[in-house]
Amino acid sequence: MLFNSSIFLFVFLPIVYLVFWHLTSKRARYIWLAGTGYVFYGYWNPAFCLLMLFSTLVSYTAGLGFLRASTARQRKVLLIAPIAVDLMLLAYFKYADFAISILNAINDVYGGTDLPMLKILLPVGISFYTFHTITYIVDSYRGVITPTRNFFEFASYVSLFSQLVAGPIVRFRELEEDLENIDGKDRRQYLDAAWSFFVIGLIQKVLIADTIAAVINPALEHARDLSSTSAWLCMLGYTYQLYFDFAGYSNMAVGLGFLFGMNIPQNFDAPYKALNPSDFWRRWHISLSRCLRDYLYIVMGGNRGSELRTYRNVFLTMLIGGLWHGAAWTFVIWGAYHGLLLALYRRFATVWDARPQWLQRACMFLLAIIGWTMFRADTWPDATALLGSMFMPTAGIDVTGTAALLVMITISAAVAHLGPTTFQMTHRWKPQTSFALAALFLLCVMRINGPETSPFLYFQF
Amino acid sequence: MQTAVSPAQPTTAGPPPRQEIPFGNARPQWHSIGRLAPLVLVLWVVADIGLRYMPPETFGIHPWQYARIGARGSAPFAANLALRTTTPVAAAATAGNLPLAEAPVDIRFTTNNLGFRATPGMEHRAPGLLVMGGSSFGYGYGLSDEHTLSAVLQRELQTPVFNGSRFFTDPDGLVELDDLLRQMPVKPESVVFLHLEQQNLFLRGDDNPYPEAEQPPRQSLQKLGHETIGPLAYRSLEERYVTFKRSFGTWLRLSPLRIMATRWQKALANDRILPNSQKAGVTALQLTNGRRILFEYYEWRRATSKRPPERMTGTVEYLAWMKDRLNERGLRMYVVTVPDKASVYRNWLVGRADVMQQLHQSNDAEYLTDLHSALSARGVNAIDGLAVLRRTAAADIADGRLTYYLDDAHWNALGVERIGRAAARTIASHERFAAVQHSAQVAR
What we know:
The structure holds 2 protein chains of 2 kinds. Chain A is mostly helical. Chain A folds into 2 domains: 6-180, no CATH class; 191-456, no CATH class. Helices cover 70% and strands 0% of the residues of chain A. Chain A contains 17 helices and no strands. Chain B is α/β, with parallel strands linked by helices. Chain B has a domain at 81-213 and 276-430: Rossmann fold. In chain B, 42% of the residues lie in helices and 11% in strands. Chain B contains 17 helices and 10 strands. In chain B, strand 6 and strand 7 (292-296) form a beta hairpin. In chain B, helix 5 (149-157) crosses helix 17 (413-430), helix 7 (216-229) crosses helix 8 (231-253) and helix 11 (309-328) packs across helix 14 (367-377). The radius of gyration of chain B is 27 Å and the shape is globular. Chains A and B meet through helix 1, helix 7, helix 8, helix 10 and helix 11 of A and helix 1 and helix 9 of B.
């Protein structure tokens, strides 16, 4: 089920909301949120719910174990075993065919027989809820949180539909207080903020991101044949499309959280205003970069060792971050690219920071576009072809709908580079602004009821 | 000057501090987005439901789709409907968001009291002939009442013809036929079984000889239902469930607001404002007379694929089996094969070299001709629709008229007339329908 779909807006959300606020006990609300999360998730494929349930049970049981464990060895086992289970599931569903393709490539060199691909269907959102459960286990081990004894409280955290399939990656600690006080919330307190976040997010996704996609997707099917101008227009368009698609989803997730009294944390903080690579990753997909920092980078040693070791840790963290996005070489290379940028920035920060801020922002934006070119391309040859067209004068196919694309890019640029983020707004709108937002919301509803509903880009991760 | 830091270096090893969000507003105002946004959704629903009370032709809803709402039991349509609309018959142009090549068609669509497409002039008369199969070609998609196959046969044979064809998603086998025959006070004498070139008929095995359209799990469920709550109660429950699912699903899909929203967006995707990405799903060719002809994705895929040999074997076996089953019920069977548009006009299509090569390499142009021969060898009376339409194809194209819609997969009134007359000639040579009309009513 998508947030930008009629079934969600007209059926699922009203029912879940009305019943939730009709229930009064904590337990009933936990059960309702957990159950509706499974309905939401099972709408794609009911079989996937079993996977999520299994992951939930494993992590919950590990949490209970931490409450009883008395020795360091027991705690270690309770840390490693469930994480291994979670990662094995993730590895199988997400990376098995990728691994087979690598083995087959090696086989081809030595003249061996190719292994058959397993053609495994990737469960939607597995990367996200697996991270939720892993962070819970690690935080329990570290003593940062006290594991919950209430299964339904934990289940409602894992399956909370607002952040289930595309983030933000919300740690248990961040929602714990809200979950504990779930029966004491005032329905009206965050109503305005909830709908404001949701409507703004929907506008970002449906009116901006999807309109850009409608123009650039047909053009990018012929990525190797685009002219230089077309290549630049497409990648500039994609840069904004990806941001508004993902930030839009995150804003909707925040809004939906508020509707049920939950504070979902900010996931984007105007990333295209970033001054340098380090700043970029403090602003883009904040929940993921914090997880990578806390559960990977720091575990590897962070910056506590030598400079060379720090560079290595940074590079490996981003490489794994790239791989997390998808089982393809383009994602791995994209991750390595950003790892290299971070390492280089660390080395030459004084030189970079001495430049005027406008130049720093422009350069960082250009570096981001180059990265997104690798991210968007279906194959590495497509990525190199696109980059070649962008940086060397090339004749080729033009984009149909250039005027519309230019309008959308202009609007996107104004919002992304100059406008406030949703977390900088007070969400107490004047009547004129409220009506304008409502009119745009109506436009979104009309668009949603059109011929196609496009899924969120980050669903594939 | 900024100090170089490693990526997002934390000051502590724990999760980020809980953010304080100054968004709380205890009393939303009347103009707040917290009130307006839900109001937009409510108004949308109210408008959508309200607009459905307007006649379906206001929004260009096809009558054969609208008629699905309220269809009861195994009947394809709601009973006793009389709809009139002027609508384009152009599914391919719609799918590809392309301009129409032909004018909209004036269509009268009526259903009888059993929920089937009515044949004009058949009211209260016992049918001599029953048309079954053929899904949309049979029930008359894109055709006015007087142009359906049953109407043409009735005119030519001077005997009442009942149109028992069903919607393409409806089960359409012996179970449904027996159900229909039970509702008729007087049984017909013969059955015209419409077989489309695109259809894949096969027997599942001696123990469960139902065609592709009948779902074996349904039969298992039926058996379980009969054993637990009894056949009558099960049938009543099943009928209610099927009616509700079909009606509600159709009602949901035929949303006037959704129709208008779709049209608005398609108007923008015209390759001038936004790209028309939908045209890639449609194959556009030309006829030798210069007119554009469209094929939807599934049509073109069929036209350029070679059918496996078991496909014909399966169809012949099924039709021979069906003939025997109908004979057991005292009914004679005639099979009318209806070709795909591409099969009829294959030799008069003009397009890009690679596209035409795709078409001619499939080498399956004579499938229906071979099928006709195989059926005749099994003693099945068959009328070869492909031969009928190909005979006049060249002259038709020269005259600027076709037997199919240019922008749709379906036959038009001329196509039905040609095949209907050929079928009537064959049937008339075998049958002697009673000269005196039965006085018994069709309905109970």
